[in-house]
TrEMBL record:
Transmembrane segments: none annotated. InterPro entries: NAD(P)-bd_dom_sf (IPR036291), SDR_enzymes (IPR052184), SDR_fam (IPR002347). It comes from Flavivirga jejuensis. Belongs to the short-chain dehydrogenases/reductases (SDR) family. Pfam families: adh_short (PF00106). This is SDR family NAD(P)-dependent oxidoreductase. The lineage of its organism: Bacteria, Pseudomonadati, Bacteroidota, Flavobacteriia, Flavobacteriales.
């Protein structure tokens, strides 16, 4: 039987590339985007869903749909994330709140009810960023984005403790990837989404210790 992966933010960038990779590797993939539309992902094992993590109603609708149609999930991959204040220096309230709504609050309240659906030996992967590491931060840009990823990392730690010996949990830094999370990444990013997805896939399909913060660009552990 195909393993089932639920990937948020599957419509573009890293999430789309990971969806394609996992479909090619015989996973059944439930993928989400705000519109529920997915360009060029047509596969018998792809199940598209609409999800806006900034909306409680959308999250609740998504839960209903998932519980109606699925008895279990093997991999929950919280990939969707935004960075409206990337490369800016002074926090601005509207984009600060939106960043936290999507990257933190939405992700947490989307994840919580799904935990009971995740098989023993399943995994939860939070797509975080090196920019959220408290240990390696020497810069002053992207206040909301960095803080949101630090908060997400704390959620990884808490889930690791709560789900010990049942579900493995990790945060991953997917590398500096050519996506439109910020326009300049298309030029400056070091990895294509496909390369990043290959690295992430290798991490999640191998034995990793729960509670790891992994830099999949260079295959090393990151400090929290
Ligand atoms: N690119 C990098 O260099 C880099 C580095 C470190 C970490 N990351 C992390 O990697 C993850 C993926 O980023 P990416 O670079 O692939 O970005 P991206 O190309 O902008 O893709 C973001 C995905 O999130 C979805 N999304 C946006 N707003 C959403 C919302 N309110 N609710 C639900 N889904 C939403 C988007 O779908 P729709 O717009 O279709 O809804 C899209 O599928 C993010 O968590 C990001 O922080 C990226």
């Amino acid at each position: 039987m195909n393993k089932i992966a639920l990937i948020t933010g599957a419509s573009k960038g890293i999430g789309k590339a990971l969806t394609e990779k996992m479909l090619n590797e015989n996973f059944f993939v439930i993928g989400t985007s705000r519109s529920g539309k997915f360009e060029k992902i047509e596969h018998k094992n792809f199940y598209p869903l609409k999800l806006d993590l900034s909306s409680t109603e959308s999250i609740e609708n998504m839960h209903k749909e998932i519980f109606r149609n699925f008895k279990h999930i093997d991999f929950l991959i919280n990939n969707a994330g935004i960075g409206p204040d990337l490369d800016t220096y002074i926090p601005e309230k509207e984009s600060f709140n939106l960043t936290f709504d999507v990257n933190v609050t939405g992700t947490v309240f989307f994840t919580e009810p799904l935990i009971e659906l995740i098989n023993e030996n399943g995994i939860i992967l939070n797509v975080s960023s090196k920019m959220g590491s408290l240990n390696v931060c020497e810069l002053t840009d992207s206040v909301a984005y960095r803080m949101s990823k630090s908060a997400l990392n704390m959620y990884t730690k808490i889930l690791t403790n709560r789900l010990k010996n049942k579900i493995r949990v990790a945060s991953i830094h997917p590398g500096w990837v050519k996506t439109t999370i910020i326009e300049s990444n298309l030029k400056n990013g070091r990895l294509t989404p496909k390369q990043s997805a290959e690295n992430i896939f290798e991490f999640i399909t191998n034995e990793f210790d729960s509670g790891t913060f992994w830099n999949s660009e260079n295959g090393t552990e990151l400090l929290w």
